RNA sequence: GGCGCUGUGGCCGAGUGGCUAGGCAGAGGUCUGCAAAACCUUCUACAGCGGUUCGAAUCCGCUCAGCGCCUCCA
């Protein structure tokens, strides 16, 4: 029995508002689409949280044996600025400000995005399509929606006719909205006179003369609407229906709602089986966002150069911090929480280091101990299969970390486990830390040289200690400590860790 | 105004009907020349009120507090 059969996944589907058993459309294969960034500015830490959460999900699917096609787009056309009628494209606007080619902007921020994700140890997706690379397909879909009578053209712009769509289908089922209510309440912006109804949305927008990102289309020069690129690219690479569509909660409405409408209107099929939404990173209980001014960039985080930060924190500490909460809960940022996470992360990685250094030696098997370890291994999978509960998984990993420490301290012997169980323990304990949760050791510099020098100093210190020259002994330890190298005297000799 | 979410011990955060995660911090102990680490033990919870139930942090209702979406946003 394969792992994915042994530990079937259940996940919370935003569409049905309930936890469901995960059954991919094609056995063994999973198609997953996640809305990527709009590359007109640097991604901040809140953005990163979502991508980190889906990276963890992607990694777990792979770990238990699924073949996954993971598509995460780059939105490089830019979304419409505030009022649709302004016809302002964020990337075009930025380009004019900075006197650069639009694609230069796009490339710059795409590179930055990739650099950031690499530092947080995210796996690259299988396909990373860009909106500008799929203009033809978007034009085709606009035409298709016009042909089907569910869109209309006004002055070179094309709008999706939500009211008409809702006659046969139901608009708003993902976000729990009803169009009658949306029609009467909410803000009506007077300038949206091109639209027949205020809830209609643009799928193609005419470019104003000053608009530099533009393409030819049957309706004149323009650019595609915001929601269209995800529909087009997910359909192209994953098919008309696919398994998982993810994104941040703030995309639920209108973005994902519109995606459903576009797909259903075009293909007649519901595009997505399971909708997954990650929750927001908050600061003092408020969503981290650029407009609120409470966001900061990963670089600022690492360097500790931001008024919200007491000091710098590493990428892996933040990744660990993120994994301590469930992806669907808000996570509140604070210096205290990050400091606590840093210590926890170090403790876990010390356990990882011990695990990689252990080798099996036969002994007397302790059946009770053996049973407990087997149970813990099972819990790793059960917790991750339960809606990707990384927080519970970490709790089990910490229990196993205590076991690792006990092996090291000699409180337990590896021989108390059967060889098979020992091997499973090491395989999955380290596998969950690195492959599933994506945590890794952070060490910089010339490790060989550093370890050689430190080992030499430890030897000198031990000589001094044997001679009871404690003044020198302590001086070596204190001076190393000042450089970030901590010495720990144990029964088996002195060990060191680098902060 | 509409739709939805949250409120857990000093802090962060799991948990969804009985078996009281975990991390950080605190207390005591073991080890140690001292220290650190590690190990063992240990303290402090479920916003308030009412209801359902043999039994609720967990289900239902109300109240209070906070948040998200409805406009670009992960």
Give the secondary structure arrangement, pairings included.
Blueprint: H1 3-6, E1 10-13, E2 18-21, E3 29-34, H2 45-63, E4 67-72, H3 90-98, H4 102-119, H5 135-147, E5 151-154, E6 157-160, H6 162-168, H7 179-184, E7 201-206, E8 222-224, H8 228-238, E9 242-248, H9 252-267, E10 272-278, E11 281-283, E12 286-287, H10 298-303, H11 315-323, E13 331-333, H12 335-357, H13 367-385, H14 390-409, H15 419-436, H16 447-466, H17 470-482, E14 485-490, E15 493-498
Parallel strand pairs: 3-4, 3-9, 9-10, 11-13
Antiparallel strand pairs: 1-2, 5-6, 6-7, 7-8, 11-12, 14-15
This protein binds one RNA strand of 74 nucleotides through helix 2, helix 7, helix 9, strand 12 and helix 12.
Question: What descriptors fit this protein?
Answer:
499 residues; alpha/beta; 15 strands; four-stranded parallel beta sheet; Isoleucyl-tRNA Synthetase, Domain 1
Give a quick summary of the entry.
By secondary structure, this protein is an alpha/beta fold. Helices cover 46% and strands 14% of the residues. A four-stranded parallel sheet has the order 4-3-9-10, sandwiched between helices. Strands 5-6-7-8 form a four-stranded antiparallel sheet, covered by helices on one side.
Structure notes:
The protein is of the alpha/beta class and 499 residues long. The chain folds into 3 domains: 276 residues, HUPs (Rossmann fold); 132 residues, Orthogonal Bundle (Isoleucyl-tRNA Synthetase, Domain 1), CATH 1.10.730; 52 residues, no CATH class. Helix content is 46%, strand content 14%. The chain has 17 helices and 15 strands. The strands form 5 sheets. A 4-stranded parallel sheet has the order 4-3-9-10, sandwiched between helices. The protein has a 4-stranded antiparallel sheet with strand order 5-6-7-8, with helices on one face. β9, α9 and β10 form a beta-alpha-beta unit. The longest helix is centred in the C-terminal third of the chain and has 23 residues. It starts with a helix and ends with a strand. It binds one RNA strand of 74 nucleotides through α2, α7, α9, β12 and α12.
